[in-house]
Amino acid sequence: MDHFLKISNVDTLYFDRIYALHGLTLEIKKGEIFAIMGPNGAGKTTLLRTIAGLLKDQPKKGIIDFNGRQIQRLTPEKISSLGIVYVPEDRGLFRELTVKENLDLGCWGRRDDRIKADLDYVYDLFPILKEREAQQAETLSGGEQQMLAIGRAFLRNPKLLMLDEPSLGLAPLIARNVFDALIKISGLGTTILLVEQNAKLALKIANYGYILEAGRIVLQGTASELMENRDVQELYLGVGGENISPKGWRLYKKRRSW
Ligand SMILES: Nc1ncnc2c1ncn2[C@@H]1O[C@H](COP(=O)(O)OP(=O)(O)OP(=O)(O)O)[C@@H](O)[C@H]1O
Ligand SMILES: [Mg+2]
After folding, report:
1. Which residue's C-alpha comes closest to atom 17 of ligand 1?
2. Are 106 and 127 in the same domain?
3. Residues 17-26: tens digit of each pLDDT
4. Residues 223-239: tens digit of each pLDDT
5. Residue 122 and residue 176 in one domain
6. Which residues are in the CB-under-5-Å shell of ion ligand 2?
7. Each residue of 85-107: pLDDT tens digit?
8. Is the CB of 44 under 6 A from ligand 1?
9. What is the biggest distance separating any 2 CA atoms in the chain, rounded to whole angstroms?
10. 13 shares its domain with 66
């Protein structure tokens, strides 16, 4: 088997007429960390939701092959049972339940004998969760909620872990903490697909990256190739100046190489 997740020519539409993904093609290898970056409205969240099967009757066209099996017409439950776990931008926690209850729900349906060890591992990754075990999820800080969401996702024993903007709203130190945990989880053999606005952070931990604009992949490469690309530096890494202005963006669109 040479590929793990292979997406070919996928179209996802909203209201049957607005293309959020248009002929999207990408491939993800087993065991690595992949980052998807792109401006607001590019289709990043739509891509994760399409893979997870959360958009009714979508993708309209194309093939999503996971481990040699076509999954584009399966239900979200079936897709998650194949080992694809999605952590949405809002983290999807059970807000009224405690930290421990949320983690226990992550183990729901598991029958193996590693549950206790995996739970200990989560507490090792994020010791603060152990301290907050009995606290309601909605009373956690943003960073703690993200840790809980990742911990719970890890307990579902994913083959592919997909995260939508895990660093959003987190202080740099906490974001770093969360990303360090992702490196460790990936080291245990879980493939990670990360959607991030913060390209600097994402490319630090990713092996490979994709730039998504207006529903298409416009550039891809290893993390170091992307970090050396002038357009990526200017637009996504903030090298060589202040944040890009609307005029800067238009100029960039004229001269960009893709
Ligand atoms: N539920 C929806 N109904 C209709 N249009 C939608 C819906 N969700 C997203 N869209 C549209 O699809 C396009 C892609 O949106 P998407 O949320 O995937 O972008 P994104 O790259 O995740 O952006 P952001 O960085 O702001 O999170 C946008 O034009 C958006 O307005
Ligand atoms: Mg989004």
Report:
1. 45
2. yes
3. 999 999 999 9
4. 999 999 988 888 888 76
5. no
6. 44-45
7. 999 999 999 999 999 999 999 99
8. yes
9. 58
10. yes
